Amino acid sequence: MNVPLKEAVATSKVLVVGSGGIGCEVLKNLALSGFKDIEIIDLDTIDVSNLNRQFLFRKEHVGKPKAVVARESILSYNPDINIKAYHDSITSQDYGLNFFKRFNIVLNALDNRAARNHVNRMCLAADVPLIESGTSGYSGQVELIKKGVTQCYECQPKPPQKTFPGCTIRNTPSEPVHCIVWAKHLFNQLFGEDDPDQDVSPDTEDPEAKIEGQEHTETESGNIKRASTRQWTQEIKYDPAQLFNKFFKNDIEYLLKMENLWKTRKPPVPLTWEQAASHEGDTAEEENNVKSQDMKVWSLSKCTKIFADTVGVLKEELAGKTFLVWDKDDKPAMDFVTACANIRAHIFTISTKSRFEIKSIAGNIIPAIATANAMIAGLVVLHAFRVLLQDYQKCPSIYLRQKSIHSKFVLAADKQIEQANPKCYVCSPQPFVNVFVNTQTMTVKEFETELLKKSLNMVAPDAILDGKGMVVISSEEGETEVNNDKKLNEIGIVDGSILKCDDFLQNYELTVAINHYEPQEKDDPLYKVVANPDELKAKESINGEKNGSEEKKEEESDEDDLMIVNELEDPQEGSSKRRKLNPPEDKDAEDDDLCVVES
Ligand SMILES: Nc1ncnc2c1ncn2[C@@H]1O[C@H](COP(=O)(O)OP(=O)(O)OP(=O)(O)O)[C@@H](O)[C@H]1O
Ligand SMILES: [Zn+2]
Question: Where does ATP bind (predicted)?
Fold first, then answer.
């Protein structure tokens, strides 16, 4: 390691987000390469299934917070490191802009898109370089995200995570996976947390099923009864025969009445409890099968028996609890899903599957590979070295992939760093405004009127709380009125929050960073805005016309309460400068950068 790098490593402050498979490896690499100031955050506790690859954790740590144990293990390698652990979600409002600004670099080691999007946006706003990474089985990727230099995590649309339309699941399954998803939904309807999106009964709103001229009527089997499925199940005391006949006979008969669905498809065949229990068709084949129990495809009669048995066991498990959580590793829960998925597959003439196959589909299982995590974590820290020396151009994305006949390389790098997408909603240059408000006393309505409209020249603002994706102010009447009288902090707008604001009536977007501020002296303004005043207006619209805000400026502002400070000034020094500048007689040459809104 050369001297400048050694120094940079020893003096930099690093945040590691996530201490799972990649995070443990990254932490070990950081500790062994001389980093002295590390913070680590993870929301989870240690599960026994983590131990095969998350080597900072041992059996005795199961159930303890990952971040806390990771810190202790790292300190046992090197007690001289200053390392702080947070057992929390990075998306919590406690980790706002000012939290991120404290770091020289952020290293993501996460496993979900929502948290990655959040950290991406915070790092862009705080202008802190972020190294993003991930693995999936034997594949992986490392990518640098640096404001103004590279593309961001959200520059390119990501393929949607695979979901199936509700009507395919409820009305017209055609593949085993559709039956497996339905069976998981059935588990939740009977034993799990109520989720209206997981209805299992026939979908009468299916556009394909609609008969022209016939309005939808509320029917026994259709959407309307949905809410009472659990109640009915309790009333019949989880009687397996009645449950079976509802889901596999009555509901199927109901589906058959939606004749449009079966014009081009093979119609399902309703199945009664008695028929299924005494079904003989494939028993002999099963008996002859030498494979292990998990690899066998159960016969229909066996599925029916297991359905009845597991309903009994799960009913007992539910007693005294509000709901059960489906888990692929919970035997009765997995057996129930296997049985139900195969019974439904039988009804729709879809191929049935072994418990093993159904488990891997139902659990979305892609095995985590320790060596893939280790390679990616090594590359993350090598990228971090270059970033600390500001060698950004030497940090193109690197991909880990399985060796194939097409390529003998396991690691492949892009030729150069990817430029940002100029149309990216998240990172395209957008006026950035720092506002200083008392988040504990200002109401949402006051914020909208005083800040967004009067100070920032918006006419019909929509404001989204970044990271949470929550619309806090809407130009649509009635949509966010409930927020009006709430204090900003009551709806999660706190120091370090970021609001994406868009004007419905003008071509005008702003990113607003919130800073909590309490006036200290009598003549301190109630709030302040730090921005480039030229940016605080609508862009010309497509046809070249200006709109809205010019006139508005004329009529507004009898304010002593507000000042707009040019962003070239240090906002933290605002109050001393303000005192100097507010009274007209104090104005001197230095003040040219400042713009005070006058009445
Ligand atoms: N919002 C978040 N804030 C903090 N940590 C998070 C957040 N979301 C996910 N994580 C953490 O990121 C880590 C990702 O690690 P990994 O992909 O190895 O997942 P895992 O849950 O440990 O393992 P697996 O999913 O394979 O069972 C997890 O420890 C998880 O708790
Ligand atoms: Zn972007």
Answer: 18-23, 42, 50-53, 66, 89-90, 111-116
Q: Which domains does the chain have, with CATH numbers?
A: 3-137+368-395 (3.40.50.720), 166-362 (1.10.10.520), 432-593 (3.10.290.20)
Examine the residue annotation and report whether 167 is marked as an active-site residue of this protein: yes
Q: Which residue owns the Cα nearest ligand 1 atom 3?
A: 89
β-pairing verdict for 432-437 and 527-531 = antiparallel
d(CA 100, CA 87) in angstroms, rounded, equals 17
347 pLDDT higher than 50:
yes
Residue 23: closest CA among 512, 368, 481, 417: 368
| Alpha-carbon span 489 to 516, nearest angstrom | 10
User: Phi first, then psi: what are they for 436, rounded to 5°?
Assistant: -115, 110
Q: Which residues line ligand 1 (CB under 6 A)?
A: 17-21, 23, 41-44, 49-50, 66, 89-91, 110-112, 115, 368
User: Which tens digit of pLDDT belongs to each residue from 300-338?
Assistant: 999 999 999 999 999 999 998 889 989 888 999 999 999
Report residue 457 as tokens: 């020249």
**Residue 286 pLDDT exceeds 80:** no
Residue nearest to atom 19 of ligand 1 (CA): 20
Express each pLDDT in 147-180 by its tens digit.
999 999 999 887 766 677 788 999 999 999 999 9
Given a contact cutoff of 8 angstroms between Cβ atoms, the answer to whether 427 and 419 are in contact is no
The ligand 1 atom nearest the CA atom of 373: 18
Closest ligand 1 atom to residue 91 Cα is 1
* Closest by CA position to 294, among listed 336, 335, 328: 335
- 135 CA closest ligand 1 atom index: 17
Counting ligand 1 atoms within 8 A of each CB, the residue from 25, 44, 64 with the most, and so the one to mutate, is: 44
- In this predicted model, what pLDDT tens digit does every residue of 256-280 receive, in sequence order? 999 989 999 999 999 999 999 888 7
